User: What shape does this take?
Amino acid sequence: MKRLLFMGAFLVIAGYGLYTAVNLYDKYMVVGRMRETPLVRPHERPLLIMETGTVPIQGGDEMVRMALKKDALPESMTTRKSLVEFGKLEYQAFCSHCHGNDLDGQGTVGQSFNPLPTDLTIPRVVQLSDASIFAAISYGTKRSPALASSMSVDSRNAVVRYIRSRQGAK
Ligand code: HEC
Assistant: This one.
C-alpha cells in the first residue's frame, strides 16, 4: 500500500515535470512562451490588404482593393464632396456613439454618462476656438477620449468643420 502511494506521488511529480518541460518550448521550438516581437505603433504601417481572389469578392475588402486601383472606384468614394461631408462620416465613426447624431450628448453610449457628454451645439462650445475643439479631439478632456493616434489630422479638422456646420444650423 505504501509503495503504491509512493508510485502515485512519483508519477504525479514526474508527469508535471514532463508537462513543464514540453511547455518550455513554443511551437517554433524556442524556449519561453513570450518572445520579443517588433513594436508596431498605430498607423506606423499600412493595414494588410487581402490578396486579390480571396473572399469576400464584393463589398467590404473589395472596396479597399478597388481603392488601390483608383479609377475603378465609384465616384462617391473618390471625390469627397466636401470637407463637411467627410467630417460627418468621421464624426459618425468616432463621436456619435457618445455625442449623438444630433450632437446633443444623447448617443447610445453617451446616455450612460452622468453628466452626459457635452452638447456640442451649446453657446459655450460655439465660443470655443477651432483649435480648442481640435485639441479636445486630439488629447481628450476628462472623459472625452484622446483620439490623436486613431484619427488623422485631416479627419480631425474635418470633424471640426462638421461640428461648426451643425452649430450654424441651429
Ligand atoms: C467615450 C465617449 C466620448 C467620445 C467617443 C467622444 N467624446 Fe467628447 N466628450 C465626452 C464627454 C463625457 C464629455 C464631457 C466633458 C468631460 O467629461 O470631459 C466630452 C466633451 C467634449 C467636448 C467639450 C470640451 C470642452 O471644452 O468642454 C468636445 C468639443 C468634444 N467632447 C468633442 C468630441 C469629438 C469631436 C469627438 C469625436 C472625434 C468626441 N468628443 C468623442 C465623451 C466622448
